[in-house]
Each structure stands twice: as structure tokens, then as C-alpha cells.
């Protein structure tokens, strides 16, 4: 088995004088679910298209499924583009079989798989519905199934959750996990952090055209300190000296950030101090918080991905 299903190195794209993607490198481990996150206009779609060989990069290169050029492994890849579109006169079952046939899947087998995907997702009632009669979200689910019906080894989904209601979003999460369990590698872009947080083994954050973070969701969350909210049983202003710098009073409670390794020592100090505990919560930052933090740093002119520099330096 190949270690990486996507190996993108230094991908760069200009539109006129505007650098839409700047030296983006990415390695997607085979069998993983990988998220490309970023604000609107960050360069996610252009990066994915370069990885798939749909857009030619001005610099850099992309290899898929064990070092192959993207054009030679098209039939082993499934792609949901950002622009949605199916033939409106086709029924769902035919649309799915048609998309499979474009990737070399036998028509009858495609119809058969269409039916089992649709029933597994609870969508069997629309299987013989024409696309033009479907809601946009339902048509998107059909297109999604069509993009994976040929059982590709690599699945690339551009903003697959956008436009779906919560029930269909859950169905899609289930589908992504199911495909991963089958052995496929899934790469998807999103700016909705909750999906990435639940699904992804690793993520890359792209902002202002460049990669700003790469790693696990936990590593991204660990960029920020946890937040403590502590309510003592006593009302003693001297308590502030015992708490980390930056502790602020919020009614009866104190609120402050705390690093991972400082939690237990703090609890020991509180216990020994005799101020007691009337309330205590320690909240880990969510991926959303880490994302906002990284994007704000970039907007303020600070590059948040030291590893990106390390890669460039080691290649120099
Ligand atoms: N064909 C094009 N011609 C000119 N500019 C383009 C073209 N395609 C994309 N851009 C610009 O390149 C930048 C990156 O676009 P891209 O679609 O890759 O971002 P994105 O991260 O996918 O954004 P979104 O989340 O809004 O879809 C944007 O500023 C966009 O306006």
C-alpha cells in the first residue's frame, strides 16, 4: 500500500498578477480523512484542482496514489467539484450510473450500486425522480453518490457539506466514514469546522493563498490555551495572586487561560489555599477557535505555519 494518496509539493497559481495559491504542499496519508480548511477565497478550490491535474500549476507538482501523475489515475479518483450540475432530465439512478460509466463502471452495476447507496442513506424514495424535480440539496447528494459509485481509491470533495440540511450533512458524514472504512482516502475542503473536527485525521489550514497549519485536529486545538472558570467558596480579593496572570473577575467567578501542564498544579494550589471550589470548568478550545486564531494571525501579518518554512528550507 502507498503511504500517501496525495503528494503535492510547492503548488503555486497566479491569476494575472494575483497569487491565488502560494507554495502549498500537502501529503495525505492513504486511508485517512483529510480536511483542507480556510476562509472564503483562501485558495482551497484552486489547490484541489491543481492536485487533481484539472488546473495546471505555475510552479510545483502533484502526485496521486503512489507517485502517479493525476492524469494517469483518473478512473481511481472520485471528485465532487464546487460547481454542482447533473443532467436535469435524468433520474437519480441513471445520473449516478452515468457518472460511474464515465469512470469505467459497467452501467448495470452502476444502477445496482446507485440503488444500494440511495437505500443505505434513506434516499430510496427519490431514486426514480428526475433531477429537475429535486431540491438542490437532494441533487447534491445524488451527485456525491455519482462521484464515488465507481469505488475510487481517492475521493476529493470540494465543500461537500455546503447547501445540505442537517440530516443530509449527517448522511454525508456517514458516507465519508463508510468510504474510509472501505479503504478509500478522503480529501475534502470546508469552512465549517464542526465537520472537520468530527471527521478528520489531519487538516491543513490555508489562508491568504498559503498553508498556515498542518497536523491533527488535536494539535490545532493545542495551539491555544484552555480556559478556566473558577468560583471559590470565599470572597477574598487576595486570591488573584494565586491565579495565573490575566485572571479576570466575572461576577463571583474568575476566568483565565491555562496551559495544559499547569492544570494539576493549579488544582493543588486551590485545594491547599482553603478557598474551596463552588464551581470549576476547564474548557478546551474548539477547532473553530484555533481556526479563527490562525486566520487572524495571518491577517495581522504573522505566518502561523513554522513547519512550512522548515519544508522550504530543507528543500533549498
Ligand atoms: N479563474 C479565476 N480567475 C481569476 N481569479 C480566480 C479564478 N479562480 C479563483 N480566483 C481567485 O483566486 C482566489 C482563490 O480562489 P479559490 O476558489 O481557490 O478559493 P476558495 O478557498 O476555494 O474559496 P471559497 O471558500 O470562497 O470557495 C480567490 O481570490 C478567487 O477570486
TrEMBL record:
InterPro entries attached to this UniProt entry: AAA+_ATPase, ABC_transporter-like_ATP-bd, ABC_transporter-like_CS, ABC_transporter_ATP-binding, P-loop_NTPase
Domain ABC transporter: 6-233
Record-linked SUPFAM superfamilies: P-loop containing nucleoside triphosphate hydrolases (SSF52540)
Domain of life: Bacteria
GO molecular function: ATP binding; ATP hydrolysis activity
Pfam families found in the cross-reference section: ABC_tran
Gene3D superfamilies: P-loop containing nucleotide triphosphate hydrolases (3.40.50.300)
Keyword Lipid biosynthesis set for record: no
Keywords, sorted A to Z: ATP-binding, Nodulation, Nucleotide-binding, Transport
Similarity comment: family membership: Belongs to the ABC transporter superfamily.
Protein name (Swiss-Prot/TrEMBL): ABC-2 type transport system ATP-binding protein
Lineage: Bacteria, Pseudomonadati, Pseudomonadota, Alphaproteobacteria, Sphingomonadales
Amino acid at each position: 500500500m502507498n503511504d500517501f494518496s496525495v503528494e503535492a509539493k510547492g503548488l503555486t497559481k497566479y491569476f494575472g498578477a494575483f497569487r491565488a495559491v502560494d507554495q502549498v504542499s500537502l501529503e495525505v496519508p492513504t486511508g485517512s480523512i483529510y480536511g483542507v480548511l480556510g476562509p472564503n477565497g483562501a485558495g482551497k478550490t484552486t489547490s484541489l484542482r491543481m492536485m487533481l491535474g484539472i488546473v495546471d500549476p505555475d510552479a510545483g507538482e502533484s502526485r496521486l496514489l503512489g507517485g502517479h501523475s493525476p492524469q494517469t489515475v483518473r478512473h481511481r479518483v472520485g471528485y465532487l467539484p464546487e460547481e454542482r450540475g447533473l443532467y436535469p432530465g435524468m433520474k437519480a439512478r441513471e445520473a449516478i450510473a452515468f457518472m460511474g460509466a464515465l469512470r469505467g463502471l459497467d452501467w448495470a452495476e452502476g444502477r445496482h450500486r446507485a440503488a444500494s447507496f440511495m437505500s443505505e442513506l434513506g434516499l430510496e424514495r427519490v431514486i426514480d425522480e428526475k433531477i429537475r424535480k429535486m431540491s438542490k440539496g437532494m441533487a447534491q447528494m445524488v451527485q456525491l453518490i455519482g462521484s464515488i459509485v465507481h469505488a475510487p481509491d481517492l475521493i476529493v470533495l470540494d465543500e461537500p457539506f455546503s447547501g445540505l440540511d442537517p440530516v443530509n450533512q449527517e448522511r454525508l458524514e456517514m458516507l465519508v466514514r463508510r468510504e474510509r472504512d472501505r479503504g478509500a482516502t478522503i480529501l475534502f475542503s470546508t469552512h465549517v469546522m464542526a465537520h472537520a473536527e468530527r471527521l478528520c485525521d489531519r487538516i491543513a489550514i490555508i489562508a491568504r493563498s498559503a498553508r498556515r497549519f498542518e497536523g491533527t485536529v488535536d494539535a490545532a486545538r493545542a495551539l491555544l490555551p484552555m480556559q478556566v472558570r473558577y468560583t471559590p467558596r470565599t470572597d477574598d480579593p487576595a486570591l488573584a495572586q494565586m491565579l495565573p496572570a490575566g485572571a479576570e473577575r466575572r461576577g463571583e467567578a474568575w476566568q483565565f487561560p491555562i496551559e495544559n501542564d499547569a492544570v494539576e498544579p493549579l488544582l493543588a494550589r486551590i485545594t491547599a489555599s482553603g478557598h474551596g471550589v463552588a464551581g470549576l470548568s476547564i474548557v478546551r478550545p474548539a477547532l473553530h477557535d484555533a481556526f479563527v486564531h490562525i486566520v487572524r494571525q495571518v491577517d495581522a501579518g504573522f505566518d502561523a505555519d513554522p513547519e512550512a518554512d522548515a519544508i522550504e528550507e530543507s528543500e533549498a
